[in-house]
Amino acid sequence: MFLLSHRVQRIITKNSFNTLTRICKPQELQFSFVSFRQLTTNQQKKVSQKVSEKQYKPPALGVNPAYDEALKYIYEDKALKYAKIKDIEEQISNILTIIAPSNQRDQEVTHLKKMQYELQVLAEINDPEVRWNFKNGKIDMSIPVYRHLREKHWKKEPLYKLMQRITQMYVIPDVFPTFEPTIDLEFKFKNDIIEPGVFLFPAQTRKEPTMILTNFHEEKRLYTLIMVDPDMPDTLNKTYQTEWNWLIINIPLNVTNPDISGGEVILPYIPPHPPKGTKYHRYTLAILEQPNNQKIEIPKNMDRVKNVREFMSEYNLTLRGASFFREVWDKDVSDIYTNILVFSEPQYGRHPKVDQYLDETGLKQPKYTNF
């Protein structure tokens, strides 16, 4: 896909060939101005995000010779890379037309598509307008260069912070054995995106969060979304158990469709409700990839107390993204038990410590006993 700066669009609109040659001469680009115009017009895509009032304003030409020369080089390089991309597209078309379906053909096509993607990124990554758009949040994830920049940004800082907190607070290994994320899972309550591991109030989380699942694959894949609390007391076994707050299966996702509304709700959302007398609870959200892009079936009456590892093993699910937040009891939890969960609120605490020096009346035993 060929992206254009506003400067080049303006030049093309005015059909000023002489002005364009100040940026890149046709003989250097090795194709005619008409071909250049057709290529850019046919393959251009507008950024799909809402356009803000702030627009890219390129520096004027002829002011800084170094800038003009650099821009000329960028567009020369871009033209050469798109010529290679066109050759790769023809190779893929020939392979799909001539060669019968086989594993070898699929591998060759996959390799060529990977080369095509890398060239598309390299062709656009140095464009000043592309850089400005990304910095100002004008990102179209269907365009390879923006997808590349978004993934690179995620892996540079947010992923590092997530892995640090998810490890320090023992979400790994208490909930999941290992974690190699490929999806940037974010969520927000109302308008605020929640950082991993922060404390929230129960009143903030009464309604289900808005999920932001940034993935980087073009083809649609099916996923399962879960939200669990691994810190609910299990008094019978004197340990902890995992309670499920939310479960949605068969969610189709790709790079341009991060919406979870296409999934099937198995366990409707219930708000976090850390019982009185317990320590903080780690409410964990995770996105799990389903095997072979196949739908799974889970009974609607699934028990809300279930081990996550056993669930993943049973349905052969793979962890792709996760995050979490923490809560402790406050007075709003009592209202959640009464009006939403509709059962009596439990209260936990430690057994009173037995003082061996007190008698059955609670008085201190005498120091000496008369035999």
Overview of this protein structure:
- With 371 residues, this protein is of the alpha+beta class.
- The protein folds into 2 domains: 6-140, no CATH class; 157-341, Phosphatidylethanolamine-binding Protein.
- It has 12 helices and 8 strands.
- The chain has helices at residues 6-14, 17-20, 26-29, 33-43, 65-98, 103-124, 128-135, 144-156, 158-168, 171-174, 308-315, 331-341; strands at residues 184-189, 192-193, 210-214, 221-234, 239-253, 264-267, 281-289, 318-327.
- The protein has a 5-stranded antiparallel sheet with strand order 6-5-4-7-8, with no helix packed on it.
- The longest helix has 34 residues, at 65-98.
- It is elongated, with a radius of gyration of 29 Å.
- Mean pLDDT is 84; it is low at 7-41 and 45-52.
